Amino acid sequence: MTSNNQWEALQMAVDELECDAVLLDEEWQVTYASPSLGRRLGYGDSGMEGRPVTQFVHSDDVDGLREFLAGLEGGQERGQRSLRVRGEDGSVRWLEVTGADLTDSAFESYALHAWDVTEYKNQEDDLEAFARILEQLHGVTNRLYAAGSVDEGLDIVTEAAVEILGFDWCLLSKVDDGLFEVRATSPESPLSVGDNPMAADEGISGQVYQSGEPHITADMTTSDEANPTHGYIRSAVTVPVGSWGIFQALSTSPDAFDDRDRRLAETLVAPLATMIERFEWEQQLRDSKAAQERQRRQIEALHAVATEMKTAVDREEIFEMTIEAVEDILAFDICIIDEVEDDVLVPTAVGSNMSIDDYYEEVPVDSQDNLGSKTYREGETLVVDDLHEAGFAPAQSKFRSAISVPLGDWGIFQAAAEREAAFDNTDRRLDSVRQSMGLFVGADVLERLEREQELERQNDQLEEFASIVSHDLRNPLSVAMMHTSHVQETGEKGHLTSVMEALERMEAIIDDVLTLAKQGQTIGDVEWVKLGTIVNESWDQVPDENASVTVVDDAAIEADRGRMAQLFENLFRNAVEHGSTSPDSQARQDAVEHGSTSPRSQAPADAVEHGSTSPDSQAHQDAAEHGGEGVTVEVGLSDGVLYVEDDGPGIDEELRDRVFEQGYTGSNDGTGFGLAIVRRIADAHGWSVSVTDGNEGGARFEFTGVTARR
C-alpha cells in the first residue's frame, strides 16, 4: 500500500516538473490521473480512473502507446513518446509522455508524466502547411513568368487564390482612367468582369491603391471606410498590384482573414505585379520602336521634300511645298506659315483644309494672347494642349491644341487641331520641318556668309604673307645688296659667299611660306604608317654622319604619310642642328628655331632657339646648346603618346610655348617656320603637340591624340 507521505512526494515531483501524472496497473488500467488532466480532457477530477488507458488515446497512436509501455516493463528503460489523446467531446490534444516502471515499489504501478504540447504541435502543423503553400506558390510564380499575356496571368492568380490559399472568392481590378475596373474573378464570384467601376481614390480599395499598403477589413458593416458593392460581403483582404491595380479576397463571414492570409496574398500577387510590369515595358518598347520607325520614315520623307526644295525659285514656293509635306507626311490637318513684316505676323501659306480668310489677317509680334507671337518673341517651339485653358485666343474657337515653331527672324510655322493634346511627341518631326525650311529660305544668307568667311581667311593669309615678305625677307635681302655693292666697289669676291648665304636664306623662307600656304590646315588620305619605315625615310633627308636615330616602338600610326614625313624631317633637323658641335654650325647655335626641311635651308638652319641674341645672354646660350660630338634621337610610343626625343641641350622652359609660333626665332640664320610647320601638321591630324625635357636633358616633343596600333 502507498502511504500518504509517498503520495505527497509524488505530487511534489509532479508540481516541480509542471506536468500531469498518470499511474497504471499491470493491466494498463488508470489507477490515478492528475485532476488537471481530467478536467482538461473533460472527464472531471477522477473520471479517467478505473478505465484502460488505451480508451483515451487516439486510435492511430494506440499501438505506439503499447510499444512504449512494453518498453517500460521490468524497469528496462525510461521512455518518451508524443501521442494524441481524445477529450470527452471528441477534441484531440497532444501529450509528450515519459514513464517509469514502479511496479516493484510501494506504488506498484507504471508512472507516466505528461506535458500538454498541443499549442506547439499546432504551430508545427501550421508551419508545415505554410511551407507547403509557399512551395505551391513558387510553382505559381514560375507559371506567371511563363505566361503569354496579362490576362493569362490574372487567371493563374485567381485560380491559385481559391485552390491553394483557400479563399472563397477573389477578384483583380485594374485602374483605368481613374476608375477601378474588374478584369478577372474566381469562379462563383458575385462580381463579373467589367462590373461596378469605382473611383480609384475611394473606399478601402482606393486607400490601398494610393498608399501601396495592404488592408484587412474584418467587417464591412462596421467599417467607416468600406464601400461594398454587395451587402452580403462581410470581410476582405485587399493587396496592391503595383501601379496596375488591386487584388481582393472576399468572404461572407466576418473576421475571415488574418495576417497569415494577408502575407500569403502578398506573396501570390508580388510576381503578378512584376509580370504585368514586364509586359507593359515590352509593349512600350514595341510601341517605341514602331514610333521610331514611323518617325524615321517621316524624317526621310521630309528630307526628300527638302531636296525638292532646291528647285524652288522663291520663298512662296518653298512655303507651299512645306505645307503640302506637313499635311501628307505628318498628317497635320490645319497648318499655316506666317512671315514677319514690320513687327507683324502676316499669313503667307495655309493648308488645304482652310483658307487665309479663316485665319488672322495679321497679328503684332507683341500680342500677349497669341501663341504665334509668343513663339516668335521667345524663339522656342511651344506645344499647347488646350489653347483656351492656356489663355490664348485661337483663330477659330474650335481649335483646341496647337504646336508653334519659330523659323528664325522671318516667321513661324503652326499646326492646330480640334482636339486637346494632339501634338505629343512631335517636336522632333517639327524640328526637321524647321531645319528643312531654314536651310533653303536662308540659303542666300549662308552662301554670302561662307563667301565672306573665305575672303576673310584669304585676306588674313595675304596679310600674313605680306608681313613675312616685308619683314623676314628684308634682312637677308639687305645683306645680299650690301655685299654685292662691296663686290662692285672693291672687286673682292669673298663677299659673294655672304651674298649666296643670304640668297639661300631667302629661298628657305620662301619655301617654308609656300609649305604653310599649301598644306596649312588640311591633310590628304590617312593610312597606317609604320614608325620604323617613316622614321628611316625621314632620317635619310638629314645629312649628319655623327647623329643617330632609334625607333623604340615600331607601331603603326594613322596619318597622312607625306605630311608625317615632313613633320619628322623638321624635328630631326631641329635636333641634329641643335646638338651639333661642328665648326660650321658653331656660330649659329644661338638660334631658337632652325628652319624647315627645304634643301636650301639646311646650311643656315641651326639649333632650337634658347633665348635672345643679346650679348648678355650669349655666353649662357652657347654653354647650353653645345651638346657634344653627335646627337642621338629616339622615336617611340609611350602610353598612347608619340614622342621624338634627343639628348641635346634642350629648350628653356620659358621658351617652350613660343618656339611653335610662326616666324619666331632668336637667330639671324633661322627661318622661324620649322616648328610652326610641325604644329600645323599636328593640328591638321587632330593632335596636340608640346615640348618638355627629355630623359637625357634634351628636348622631347610629345604628340597626344594619335591613333596607333601594334
Helix content: 40-55%
Average pLDDT works out at 77
- State which percent range the strand residues make up: 15-25%
Q: Uncertain runs with pLDDT below 50, 5 residues or more?
A: 438-450, 580-628
Task: Report the principal-axis shape.
Answer: elongated
Q: How many β-strand stretches?
A: 25
Largest sheet: 6 strands, antiparallel
Oligomer: single chain
List the SSEs and their pairings.
Elements: H1 4-17, E1 20-24, E2 30-33, H2 35-41, H3 62-70, E3 79-86, E4 92-102, E5 109-116, H4 118-146, H5 150-163, E6 169-176, E7 179-185, E8 198-199, H6 203-211, E9 215-217, E10 235-241, E11 245-251, H7 259-308, H8 315-329, E12 334-341, E13 344-350, E14 363-364, H9 371-378, E15 382-384, H10 387-390, E16 401-406, E17 411-417, H11 427-441, H12 443-472, H13 474-490, H14 495-519, E18 527-530, H15 531-539, E19 548-551, E20 556-559, H16 561-579, H17 583-586, H18 615-625, E21 632-638, E22 641-646, H19 674-685, E23 688-693, E24 699-704, E25 708-709
